[in-house]
Amino acid sequence: MSARPFGVKARLAQELCGFTGSPKAFREKYNVADKGQYHRIYTAEDIRRIRMSMLSLSEDSSREKTVPPILNFRMAKGGTGKTTICGNVASALAMMGHKVLMIDGDPQASLTGLFGIDWVSENITHIGDLMNRNEKKEKDFVDVQAAIWPIYAGGMLDMIPADITLADSDSWLMGATNREFVFSRLLKRYVDVFAHYDVILIDSAPSTSLLTNTLMTACKTLLAVVVPEGPSTKALEILDSNVHELNSAFADAGLNLDYHVIVNRYNQTKKPHNDALSKLVSTYPDQINDTIVRDFIGFVRQNDAFDEKNNGPVLEKEPNSVGARDVLDLTKSLIRMFDIKLADVNSLAPLASVGRAA
Ligand SMILES: Nc1ncnc2c1ncn2[C@@H]1O[C@H](COP(=O)(O)OP(=O)(O)OP(=O)(O)O)[C@@H](O)[C@H]1O
Ligand SMILES: [Mg+2]
Q1: pLDDT confidence of 178, banded at 50, 70, 90?
Q2: I want to staple 51 with a disulfide (CB 3.0 to 4.6 A). Which of 97, 246, 282, 308 is the partner?
């Protein structure tokens, strides 16, 4: 894994904390560990500590153990930006002080690669392995904790990575009892581990499969990532029918899955994009996120595993870019929508005056 320090400079840290005083006051108040170090890099852990102190909160180990909100990025088409949005929102959530678990649910393992894990040479236990062992009741072999890789220090951003063998999941899922709920059963059984996080994000494969289905049914609202172009909007119709089929098949089990649309790679100079966007807005008026993520070359740069200088989330690398600003706005709206907490309080409370989001 990459050894570069994950973190942000003081000005962005101040923004992420919602501290409205002067930069000098922020540095003096929250720079205790490195007094005098002007260019201090603030980690996600620092930001959590600062925000908790601003809200007079402390870590509560007696907190009720429940599975946190799950954000599952889905689309029945490849290349719409699921992995990009998932990875960047995950990093932004952590940089806002939340404890975040990412699950790579795609055998292509792009999210795993985005965070520098070389799945070809590493020994990975993926989510398919965990679910399979849990179904077989191989209790001793289900070690969820051991499958988790740390990305940011202090458990602020962790990941259950994937590798190509996750593609084999449908072969055993086929014979599993109540196969659509194997992921929910894993979450429930190991709630102690999952409850440690404020939010879980899943990067899904583009195909519709037993694997994507089981990862979907544990959620309330899916996040459908679309590019405002014909093929992508057509794929949204496929996802829509996939959701309806699951809901009607499992109505008795109380399944009532919904989806919310995130428009990505929007280029306002392209007429087809504007046409497709208008169509999306009129077809899904209540389901589209207000933040339209613009086409931004930094998202492509960050994917290059060999470019140590530029890879990694845009918020860290280019915090004032349009890409980072869109990611922050989107993240704030998802915090509201999914009620993502910071140690039991609505985490946006002290951030009301920060950023463009209302
Ligand atoms: N807003 C954006 N601006 C510019 N490039 C983008 C943007 N979002 C994603 N990309 C680029 O588009 C390509 C596909 O993105 P990504 O891998 O995130 O899509 P995906 O939906 O996860 O694909 P797959 O279905 O294969 O998993 C990548 O090269 C990524 O860098
Ligand atoms: Mg992907």
Answers
A1: very high
A2: 97
Greater confidence (160 vs 312) lies with: 160
Instruction: For the chain, list the domains and their CATH numbers.
Output: 62-351 (3.40.50.300)
- The structure's pTM equals 0.93
Atom of ligand 1 nearest to the CA of 297: 4
Mean of the pLDDT values across residues 161-175?
97
85 alpha carbon to ligand 1 midpoint, in Å? 8
Q: Distance from the CA of 320 to the center of ligand 2, in angstroms? A: 25
18, 61, 298, 319 from 95: Cα distances, Å: 12, 22, 18, 12
| Residue 212, ligand 1, Cβ within 6 A | no
pLDDT of residue 347: 59
Predicted pLDDT at 166: 98
Ligand 1 atom nearest 203 alpha carbon: 22
Q: How far apart are CA 72 and CA 51, in angstroms?
A: 26
- Long-range Cβ pairs for the range 336-339 (8 Å, 24+): 337/221, 337/260, 338/69, 338/71, 338/199, 338/221, 339/69
Average pLDDT, the chain: 89
Ligand positioned closest to the Cα atom of 82: 1
Ligand 1 within 6 A of 109 CB?
Answer: no
- 8 Å CB contact between 93 and 199: yes
Q: 293 CB less than 6 Å from ligand 1?
A: yes
The span from the CA of 210 to the CA of 216, in Å, is 10
What pLDDT score does 34 carry? Answer: 57
Task: Report the nearest atom of ligand 1 relative to the CA of 296.
Answer: 3
Angle at 202 between CA 299 and CA 165, to 5 degrees: 95
